[in-house]
Amino acid sequence: MLLALGGCSSVGSLFGGSKNEPVVDPNLFPGNYKQEVLDTLRTTLVEPSNVRDAFITDPVLAPVGGEQRYIVCVRANSRNAAMQYQGPKDRIGYFYGGHLNQLVAATPEQCARAPYKPFPELERLCATKSCQ
Asked: What are the sequence ranges of the domains in the chain?
C-alpha cells in the first residue's frame, strides 16, 4: 500500500506539475548579454571575422508582444560569402530569464533611436580558436 501511494507522488512530476520546479523570472537582467550575442553571431554570420563598425546597446526593458522583456540592439558591418562588406545591419536581441532567446534583423523603427556604444569585442570576433 505504501509503495502504491509513493508512486502517486511522482505522477505530478511526469506531467510538469512538480512543486519543486524553479520559477523563472522572465525579466531577469541579462548580465552576460555581450558574450551571448557574440556566441550567437559567431555561428550565424556568414563570415564572423573582421566585422567592422560594431555597436551595441545596454539591455533595456521594452514592450514586446504586450509584455516587458529585456532587449539589446546590435549594429555591425559584416562580410558575405564573397567576402564583401554588406554595410551596417541592425539586429535586435530578445532575452528571457536572463538569456538571449532570439537575435533577428531589426526593423528601422526598433533600433532607430537606440543609444549605441562601441562593441570592440565583436570586431575582434574570430570564427575559430586558431585565429585568436
From this structure: 48-125
pLDDT of residue 2: 45
Other CB atoms within 10 Å distance of the CB of residue 106 = 19
Q: What is the DSSP letter of 76?
A: E
- Within the chain, which residues score under 50 in pLDDT? 1-14
Count the Cβ atoms, other than its own, within 10 Å of residue 69.
Answer: 19
Which residues does 83 contact at the CB level (< 8 Å), separation at least 6? 47
* Whether this model's pTM surpasses 0.85: no
Under DSSP, the state recorded for 130 is G
Q: Per-residue DSSP letters for 47-106?
A: EEEEEEEEEEPPPEEEEETTEEEEEEEEEEEEE-TTS-B---EEEEEEEETTEEEEEEEP
Through-space distance between the first and last CA atoms of the chain, rounded to whole angstroms = 63
